[in-house]
Hints:
The chain is mainly α. It has helices at about 5-10, 15-30, 35-55, 60-75, 80-95, 100-115, 120-135, 140-155, 160-175, 180-195, 200-215, 220-235, 240-250, 250-255, 260-275, 280-295, 300-315, 320-390, 395-470, 475-500, 515-525, 525-530, 550-565, 620-630, and strands at about 510-515, 535-540, 545-550, 575-580, 585-590, 635-640, 650, 660.
Amino acid sequence: MRSDEIETQLANTTDPVTKIDLLNQLAFEYQYNDLEKATAVAEKAQEVVNKLEKAKTPYLKGKADTLQTLGYLHLRQHSNGLKMPLLLEALALYQELNHHTGEARTLIYIGLTYLRIGHYDESLVYLKRSLEISKLNHNEAEISRAYNGLGLIYQVTQKYDVALHYYQESIEISRKLNDLQQVAITLSNCASTAENIGQYEDAIAFGEECITLSRLVGNQVSEGYALLGIVRARMRQGEHQTALQLLQENSHRLVTSPDHYLTISNMIVIGTVYHELQRIDDAIAIWQQALQIADQTGLPELGCACHENLSRIFKEQGDFVSALAHYEQFHQLKELIYDERTNSRLQALAVIHRTETAQAEAQILQAANDELTSEIQVRKRVESELRFYQNQLEELVFARTAALEEANSKLRAEINDRQQIQAEREEMIVELEVKHAELERFTYTVSHDLKSPLVTIEGFLGYLEQDALQGNQTSLMEDINHIRHAAQQMHVLLGDLLELSRVGRIVNPLEWISFSDLANEASLRLRHKLVEKEIHLEIAPDCPLVYVDRPRLVEVLQNLLDNSIKFMGEQADPRIVIGVRYDDGRVFFVQDNGIGIASAYQNKIFGLFERLNQSGEGTGIGLALVKRIVEVHNGRLWVESAGPGQGSTFCFTLNETTTKIKD
């Protein structure tokens, strides 16, 4: 049905159920020419769904269709954070309604969402589930879509022969169904796959057929992708002037697409053609324009590509300031994309977890209800027997009553036991969730900080390759030094992480030793730094004996003393004191008159990779390691400081069973 016919029906209906169905149909009609308009129409359908729910007359099929439509449109618009919860909720509704077509289509969209954020295994699972459901229900339209989705996965993972096989299967089914829209979409994918494996004439043939069908069915998006594929194929064949002419003839179609992602992609390719034709100013201008659109429309992946191209072309032109500025933006966007994909996956996992939990709770409630129904039936039968025997013998009534009371007592005891088991289970769940959250934070932090040296290595390897080709020996050595420094940084970081992981696993025999001796041993290791900075160190002579892991406690004092030396600042009379004081117990401390710490950061500094001065030396693991060693000794660690410029006192306790006053 055409969009004008649907609009006419909408204007003539007041039935909310019919209105929801028509709005969803209209949204799909608009998607190929105006994504924003299509999304607005789907949101109107969502408003009608919400009104029905408030009136307690829900239309579940319409709600599922609307959620699926919105999720798919957000997928088309590359809105990573929005689509997955909508699609998962739609999937649950279709499963509840036993609506196989809706379930299969939604599984495809979820699979494509996982493909978009780079989780190929999950994507493959959902698309295969969709294909299985569609085959069981002989739904050829959804089988064709599933084959197209599988082809996309294998294309992205560079299994091009498998990808082309699935695309051909999809095209064959769609032609039989006369679904020209799906044929056009799949032909566009065939063109890009053929280009990837160097079959440029095939890529051009697929693209031209796709353009013909796309114009016939009014699909501007597929037409744009096909034009882009033909241009790339011509460029790969070395026909740059032909590619440029094709771009110029279709410039209006390429840069006014309803799909912002396609528009920016087209502009990036146009810039590449200009670059290869040495039209440098034109290339820079169109990449900068593409970057502006990417920033406005929230497409960091394409903005990242623009920054990378601009960095490279400015470096070639000798404008190293501009090249470095775009290079830094390139890596900031790469980190943003990583974070967004991680958050998107975490949100999806959270929705799945909530859905599975709700299903499990429903099963438990159903089982409890069945058990209660059975118990009621038993009680009714017992009461009937009691009434029967009451007419015959009073003693039998008393006996039956006693038996019933005993059964009730056992039932109450069993209920109490179950409640206790449930409470223990909930406590275990909370504990597991806390540990899981800690593990996620640790994993994210480690991956984030390990990634920084890798980004540096990756960036300078690119420069190294360019400088090698240009024979620039000076730049070559600078690039190598940067790569070596990044590798050394990662080596130190991994060493510190390994040391942190050993705390609590590798334990030395405990021994009695004077705390003063431990401090002296730690100071000897840093003697050269103390002398170099002319720092006066005072160690209290009359400290208690402690029963500890000697190497670990020396490591604690060495890290704290080294920290005080690093952050001494420009003091006229730098001083550090190591000693013990007696508050509610024994408190050991390392005190300095250095730069001090603001109160807002006094808890933060003990976290993994936390450094107040990002340009300073070290990996940010030292204080985390100190905290872990103190905790293994059943103590606690904290810092006291009146603020910047007021010095710092790092304090820690040891379990009273590990300390003894010196005789």
